[in-house]
Amino acid sequence: MIQRSFHIKDYTSEKFNAVLREVAGIPEYDSAAQVLLLMIDQNWDTSIMKEKIRLVKATLPKAEIVGATHYDSMIDTGYNAPNNCILSFMMFENPAFSIHRLHLNGLRDVQIGEAAGDIIRACDSPKCLMTLFASMPRDIGIILDTAERDNPDIPIFGAQAGVQQLFTETPDSSFVYDAFGIYNETLLMVLFYGESLHVKPSYNFGWTQVGRTMTITGLRSPYVVSEIDGRPAAEMYERYLGIPWHSVRLAVENISEFPLVATHPTDAGGMMPMGRIPFAWTDDGELLFAVSMHEGEKIRLTYGLPQQIFETVEKDALSLHDFSPQALLMVICMNRMIFLREHEHIETDYYRTIVPEAAFMHGNSEIFRYNGAGGEMHSALIAIGFREGPAEEIMPVMYEPEVPEAEANDVIPLELRLMAFMKAVTSDLEGTTAELLQLKDNLEEEVERKTLENKNLSLHIVQTLADAIDAKDTYTNGHSGRVAKYSREIARRFGYSEKAQDEIYIMGLLHDVGKIGVPDAVINKPGKLTDEEFDAIRNHPVMGARILGNIKEMPQLVTGARWHHERIDGRGYPDKLAGDDIPEEARIIAVADAYDAMTSNRSYRRAMEQSRVREQIEKGRGSQFDERFADIMLQMIDEDTDYQMREI
Question: What average pLDDT does range 511-538 have in this prediction?
Fold first, then answer.
């Protein structure tokens, strides 16, 4: 396996052809089982891009192409200039990759993650998955959570394009190059596999966390943060960095040294920092992000010092050096380039001393997931090493890139002096105030522990109440628990957050609480109900809402109790709501409740056969049930080949 990379400045067809002919003359090209071409291009002219693809296919028919066009950098990095093009060829001795494209229109985030996970699971020896999204907005966290569910040890990495375009060839060989048309909602995936292929991932952030922990307390959408700690989000930058949010538009240059960071736990017990860079703010003090943010998420400010970042990169590069990669792919955040400016090449030089022709790409945000940690982030450098066959007996010599230092008479730039000052001040915390910080951390841990205990106690109380409700019906056992479980699963598949799944689970447990006010003789009557008895049954949603309405801390509980018997066509009860007027959670619980009713023994009939249950759910789509949630329930039925989802 070898890697060859070329940087073509000021594109001309002559320069492009010369590179292709050079690759065609490499002996490894003729003997390669597969050749992957990663093409990063600055030219947005469709006709020129089509011509480039035609030339590649004519000269290098083995090359399978994936790539992207990227936006202009705010600085001249040497790579990001008009008409620039980077070609990186990976030549494999054995079959080592497959390319997959998924059109995302109409797909939920969970479905996208399932499709990616299916690709990994279908492979005998998967090693890593490269993902290139031409899509916004998407909750990459949900996608990655779903994709890695059964594949935690398979690294997933790549980039999300945003305003960029990703390209490949369509089956009819026409070139896909449309950022704002149908192909903007596209996910390209390259699955690397094979017994002889070895992969080693590396993730680097490099900024130091500083200041107190803050909480996102308000979202207008997953990409618009309205409040942090109960105040307009942009106030944070005025308070800590002196950037007046009422009069100045946020620019990345103002905050590149100070990314926000969210830390997520890893399977190994550590915490992975994930950068968060807002690209703009509104007059109302809202911060606009290109990655999904979450209410309740904990964030902190960080500061960067170039020398410090170079040190962390060198450490990561050394770990890859021991792996002896033959090829290396890097995903680099533009914020790092803006921050490091003319010195941005230094960190890539560390890796190119290991693999001289290593390739890089960048996007609107980076994607990295490995062993349960990571997601969508900014300010990161991701490096993935590849090697075929056994490790090299002799390790490559590690050359240390030259890190610039100011001469004695030079004036050190103010930002470097300020960063050094902040580093020193932060280091002082290890002295007199370190104990206070430790006490603060211990207090936060104690609060989290007590919060978890209270949550578990509350859930136990709710479960006990649900069991008491179910006990009124001598013919059913665990109805509320099953409805809660089915409701949570429907919500999960539909893309609800974990917090929202927990909420709908409790709604499901208490959806029938109003039956406390219905006489046992009515609930357990085997024969036909009288009008008065039927009215008592139909009144249980109103009674339930009245009971749960007294719990002011959890107002959402009323939703499931009052409206789980409403119908999409408006023929339900108690309020005859129709369509979207019925709260979404109630529409989910309605499907789950009906399903469990049909799969349980009742006083007036036995549980139905699975095929009959499916038929009834299908029949109720669009009339009794919301079609989207009915479809998810049908999917769950089809997966339940042993008919386990029922009262046992």
Answer: 80
Non-local CB neighbours of 381 within 8 Å, separated by 6+ positions: 203, 204, 206, 313, 316, 330, 331, 332, 333, 336, 347
Give residue 625's identity as a one-letter amino acid code. F
Sign of the alpha-carbon torsion through 240, 246, 247, 253? positive
Neighbours of 634 (CB within 10 A): 16
Instruction: Give the global pTM.
Output: 0.63
Percent of the chain with pLDDT over 70: 77
Q: What is the mean pLDDT of the chain?
A: 80
Mean pLDDT calculated for residue range 32-38: 94
CATH superfamily, domain 449-639, is: Hypothetical protein af1432 (1.10.3210.10)
Contacts of 543 (CB under 8 A, 6+ apart): 514, 515, 516, 517, 518
Buried b (16+ CB within 10 A) or exposed e, 508-526: bbbbbbbbeebeeebbeee
Q: What Å distances lie between residue 191 and 93, 120, 121, 213, CA to CA?
A: 16, 7, 11, 38
The answer to whether residues 128 and 199 touch, using CB atoms and an 8 Å cutoff, is yes
What's the chain's length in residues?
Answer: 648
Q: Which residues are bridge partners to 126 per DSSP?
A: 193
CA atoms of 60 and 292, how far apart (whole Å): 40
In angstroms, what CA-CA distances link 105 with 108, 505, 510?
9, 29, 36
Higher pLDDT pick, 466 / 173: 466
pLDDT at 76: 41
CA atoms of 602 and 581, how far apart (whole Å): 31
User: What b/e string do you get for 528-551 counting C-beta neighbours within 10 Å, with b at 16 or more?
Assistant: eeeeebeebbebbbbbbbebbeee
Backbone angles phi, psi at 380, to 5 degrees: -100, 160
Region 295-314: what's the mean pLDDT? 87
- For CATH 1.10.3210.10, list the domain ranges present in the chain: 449-639
pLDDT at 423: 62
| CB-based contact 278:288 (threshold 8 Å) | yes
